[in-house]
Structure formats: structure tokens, C-alpha cells
Design goal:
single chain, mainly alpha
């Protein structure tokens, strides 16, 4: 994903298309295709989660393969000769792939800021084309597919969260974008949902459900850390929910950040897991010199695991918050 800093008109249903929002949402293809793409997404997230757990890095080929498969299958699933839906589906797919391919490297050699400006122009072009399509052709099977709007919205959300460091890793943002392309919308979870929640899911991007569910499920992490500290009698106020003591001798082999008041903060905005390990080795040496044998650390938990769990629960139950609210 290029590092350039980045920054919808009201939607109208196409009068000639279906007016039921659920029908519009699922018009991208038959249920069998949607099910196959969902399985592909889970398989891809599973592979990526294993890589993330082992190395805290994910091979970009995982995301590229998933995105190309989603783009091709989505194009075929439209099942129409109408140029407008096909054009906008291609636009959404290219918008996703732009973040997964190293197109920026040749331009960066000319000037380090050039990829950022090109990307800003690309974002503006996509949004203008999308808004123009909605105004001109409407939203529906013969206009701009709702799925395309969901894809573009997902990319914008993922990029915003990445640039604001709410999604710390590029792999997490790419996972959201790819999820949005493979499963743009999913108004019919497998285990059913309250009737009041279905109209929302019909227009609410699936990746948003995945992200929110994953964030909710991630609350088990501080609870688990607190339980570990309580069991080892190291619980210490608020930091007992986010950190735990670790022997200095283990720093080089553990994916952790040092969060100890006796250790000065360091720049942790690193590009690779190798750089991260080098940083921990350097800190380990400095702490040995100071005579420290144990420090408080926070685990570098791979967020792809909660995202995978969020995808599973979203496919089964939809948006967990919507479900709870609909039951009240």
C-alpha cells in the first residue's frame, strides 16, 4: 500500500430495477457463487492468519490471489451484457488491487512524493466516477451495483483506519479490502438474524460487520492477559490488562513491545518483522547492560485472528451489534 496521505452522493434506486434493498444487494450473482466466494475468503484469511501468527507478516500474494479471484468471479456472476454494471465492477476491483500491487516503486524512484499524488488523483477519479454513475444511471442491476458501492466504502474505511493507525498493520487493511471485494454484502447469514436487522445488512458492507465483530471478539485478549497476571500474581492495576512481565533473555524470540516505565520509548514504526526483531535484540542488549532481568511487555497479537473470527461470525450471524439491538 503506497504511503501517500489520502483523504458519496445520495443513492437512488434505478426505477427500472428492483426496489427491495435486499434484492438489489444480492443481485451480483446466484447464492452458489456467493457461498463459494465466502469459503474462499475464509480459506484465504486462514492462510494469512497462520502466516501472521508465525512471522507477523503476510505474503502479498495471498491478497493478490484472493482479489483477482473475487474480481473475475464477480464479473462473471453479474451475468449481464450491460456495460454500466460491468464497468463499475471493474472500477471497484481495480480500486482494491491498487493497494495490493507494488505499482508505486518505479514512481518513487523519480520522486518520493509522486506515488502519493498519483494515488490521491486515483481516489478522486474513483469517487467522481462512482458519484456520476449513481446520478446518471441510478443504483441497481442496470446501473451501479450496490456491491460496488460497498466495495468502495470498504476501501475508504480500511485506508482511513490504516492512516490513523487504528489498523496498525498493512495486512489488516488489505484483509478488509479483499473481504469487501469477495463478499461485498451478505444480507442472509447462515443461521438467520432478527427480521429487523435484515434491511440494514442489505446495504451495510460485509467487511464492516467483519471488522466490528472482530473488534468485539478481541475483548477476550485483555481478559486473558489479566487472568495470566492474576494466576502468576503479577497483576498491577490497569497495565495488568495489557501487559505482563517477561524475562529480558526472551525478548529476541518473542513478538512483543516493551512497555516498562524504566525503559525509554522507541520508534516502533517499522516496515518488516526483521526490523522489529533487530529492535528487540538491541533493546535486549541495552537492558542487560543496565542489569535488568525482567521488563513489562505487551504482546504483538496478530489482528488477523480476530478478523477471521469476525468473518466466521458475520457469515453465521451477521452484525452482532445489529442482532442484539434488534432483539431489544
Amino acid at each position: 500500500m503506497a504511503r501517500g496521505k489520502v483523504f458519496r452522493k445520495r443513492r437512488h434506486l434505478n426505477p427500472s430495477g428492483p426496489t427491495n434493498p435486499v434484492s438489489v444487494a444480492v443481485s451480483l450473482g446466484p447464492p452458489e457463487v456467493a457461498a463459494g466466494l465466502a469459503v474462499l475468503l475464509l480459506a484465504g484469511l486462514g492462510v494469512a492468519s497462520v502466516q501472521d501468527w508465525r512471522r507477523r507478516e503476510v505474503d502479498d500474494r495471498v491478497w493478490q490471489t484472493l482479489a483477482v479471484a473475487g474480481a473475475v468471479v464477480g464479473w462473471s456472476a453479474l451475468g449481464t451484457e450491460a456495460a454500466v454494471p460491468l464497468f463499475y465492477w471493474a472500477l471497484g476491483a481495480i480500486f482494491v488491487l491498487e493497494h495490493l500491487l507494488p505499482w508505486d516503486l518505479p514512481f518513487e524512484k523519480r520522486h518520493e512524493d509522486l506515488p502519493g499524488w498519483i494515488e490521491i488523483a486515483g481516489y478522486a477519479a474513483v469517487l467522481l466516477l462512482l458519484a456520476g454513475g449513481i446520478v446518471t444511471y441510478g443504483v441497481g442491476p442496470s446501473g451501479v451495483p450496490v456491491a460496488v458501492i460497498a466495495v468502495v466504502a470498504t476501501v475508504l474505511l480500511a485506508r482511513l483506519l490504516f492512516e490513523t493507525n487504528l489498523l496498525y498493520g498493512g495486512a489488516d487493511a488489505k484483509a478488509l479490502m479483499v473481504a469487501g471485494l469477495l463478499v461485498p454484502l451478505d444480507p442472509y447469514p447462515l443461521l438467520g438474524i432478527p427480521a429487523a436487522a435484515r434491511p440494514l445488512l442489505a446495504v451495510y458492507p460485509f467487511a464492516f460487520n467483519l471488522l466490528l465483530n472482530g473488534a468485539l471478539l478481541a475483548v477476550v485478549v485483555p481478559i486473558a492477559i489479566a487472568g495470566w497476571n492474576l494466576r502468576n500474581r503479577t497483576f498491577d492495576g490497569r497495565r495488568g490488562f495489557t501487559s505482563y512481565p517477561m524475562a529480558v533473555e526472551r525478548l529476541h524470540e518473542a513478538f512483543v513491545w516493551v512497555r516498562d516505565p524504566r525503559v525509554d520509548p522507541v520508534d516502533e514504526d517499522l516496515a518488516t518483522s526483521e526490523e522489529d526483531r533487530d529492535l528487540r535484540i538491541r533493546l535486549q542488549g541495552e537492558l542487560r547492560v543496565r542489569g535488568l532481568t525482567e521488563v513489562w511487555v505487551t504482546p504483538q497479537l496478530p489482528f488477523l485472528l480476530p478478523l477471521l473470527a469476525g468473518a466466521v461470525t458475520a457469515l453465521l450471524f451477521g452484525n452482532l451489534l445489529f442482532d442484539l439491538a434488534a432483539l431489544l
